[in-house]
Predict the 3D structure of the following.
Amino acid sequence: MSKLQQDETESILEEPLGEAEPLLIAPHSKRNGISLTIAGSIAVFISLIIFISAKSLFGVGMVMFGFGSVGLVLGVAKMKQPKASFKLSTKGVDYYHGRGTVHVAWDNIQRIDVSRVTQNLQLIELPYIGIKLHKINPILDCISPRLATGLLTEQRPLLMTAATQDEDLQSLEIYVGAEFTPLVVNDERYRGVLAMFGHRCQTLESQLGFHLYLSVDSLDREPDEFVALLRGWQQNHFKGL
């Protein structure tokens, strides 16, 4: 942990809850978006000039066009990402995604940790921060169908990882098939994509231990440092009750 981030975490733990200002987390992946866009645009422009005026360098132009196009697409994609991926406040943590926002209250968080699995007697870290909830209803009540759809798509690798953890693949097939049925949780009924997302949360929790998974690409620091930061804010919240 860097000195600045360590001081930041310690100040949160020591600061009275009422005085804590919201903390915005900007992901590393968003950085250099402008540089990539400019560099990609220049490479594409130069390649077009080569195609027109220097046909003997066609191969060089193709290479520049390929790299420039990739850089341009990546740069634009980074620039379109939300400026902040998380906002930590006295009430909870807000996760900002390109498809929407979801709020997780500190009171509803049972456990926060780096997601890990055991393979061949070895403990392997997954590129996700896991959050185990007391109830999934508050998440299903505030998440948009568009964001839920996006997260379902992004969580396919996690579902495959869960399949490798379950010795009985037939039971996992039952879980996946259940995603297309209505979901009833704590006497509340959900249908459609919200029911699918709720079922997925329950499946991943039963197989991997957490309901929600935050990609490390959305962080501004090492996963362990971010976990410590979230735990610090949660502890500060309970101190103020």
About this structure: The first strand starts at residue 23 and ends at 25. Residues 9-17 have pLDDT under 50 and may be disordered.
